[in-house]
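Sequence, please.
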């Protein structure tokens, strides 16, 4: 995770939060706990699934969340090989500290849907201000 650019991390965070509700998470341990509970729920769903394609889909998502939580994104450069990498939870908290008004910070504080509404309101307010300036 520490080798990713902020823009790429935000995309991964958006995909992961489709399956995990990270509302009210303040520490990396909180995020990890939510990830583990989501993995537990996904395992139950995969065991109850009747189609092989459904089982494959859920087990793939479980594997992705497990790898992101434990290791982060695998390092491709030789300089980082063998070093301890930042997992998803630690990178999330670090990103929030660096960007306190971002969608990631708002998602941790309010939840995904409310964060999107807040960002839409901010965008509309900014557009209206720009439209007034042009007149």
């Amino acid at each position: 995770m520490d080798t990713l650019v902020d823009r790429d991390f935000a995309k991964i965070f958006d995909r992961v939060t489709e399956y995990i509700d990270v509302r009210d998470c303040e520490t990396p341990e909180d995020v990890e706990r939510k990830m583990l509970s989501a993995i537990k729920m996904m395992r139950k769903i995969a065991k109850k699934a009747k189609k092989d394609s459904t089982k494959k889909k859920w087990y793939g998502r479980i594997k992705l969340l497990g790898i992101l939580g434990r290791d982060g994104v695998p390092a491709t450069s030789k300089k980082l090989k063998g070093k301890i990498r930042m997992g998803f939870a630690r990178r999330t908290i670090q990103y929030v500290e660096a960007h306190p008004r971002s969608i990631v910070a708002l998602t941790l504080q309010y939840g995904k849907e409310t964060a999107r509404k807040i960002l839409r309101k901010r965008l509309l307010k900014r557009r209206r201000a720009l439209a007034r300036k042009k007149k």
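Residues 6-134 form one domain.
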